[in-house]
Fold:
Amino acid sequence: MSAAKIRLSPSEMELLIHTEWILTKNRILEKTDALLGELLQAQQQYLQQQESLLPSLVWANGAKLSRGDNYRGLPYRVLDHPRCFSTEGYFAIRSIFWWGHFFSCTLLLSGTYQQQCIPGLARSFDTFQGAGIYYGVNSDPWHHHFEADNYLPMEEMDASAFEAENERRPFIKLAKKIPLQEWDHAVELLQATFELFIQATDQFPRR
Structure:
């Protein structure tokens, strides 16, 4: 590679010789980890107060916080609680921070869990619409952006289409987007969506 191809632009050089911006980034990510830790405590406290009918397998793995710097080139954090990825299917609630974009709370269901949850989801359709929930339309469940090829606002669906899609698709994915400007209220907003998803899916017989 020639020297000309690896020269830095003036703005890149400015960032290279100054450290405060990256130290600030590190502080923000540390605070994000703390925020998600506070969210996990709220989730666990809520569940302790409920007589949950969710299968024990759903909770067997405990919570997991994943960290990375390259979801579409930007840092992210993912709190999975619960996180069940088994031969029976998926049951996961993902609380996500994506730098420069949003917080989100996502429900992912497939297999046995998807089929068992369909009636409860149908009963919650009006609540989902009123809460600003999005419906996953991508064939890949591991995309988390809110562009049109990934999510559809549920305000644009009717109840019959929602039920038909839930039966047809190989997985169900629902999500709520929360602006980063809501940082001071992010735990409460993510927790409210978590509780909504738990109430909509907690329809299982005890095992």
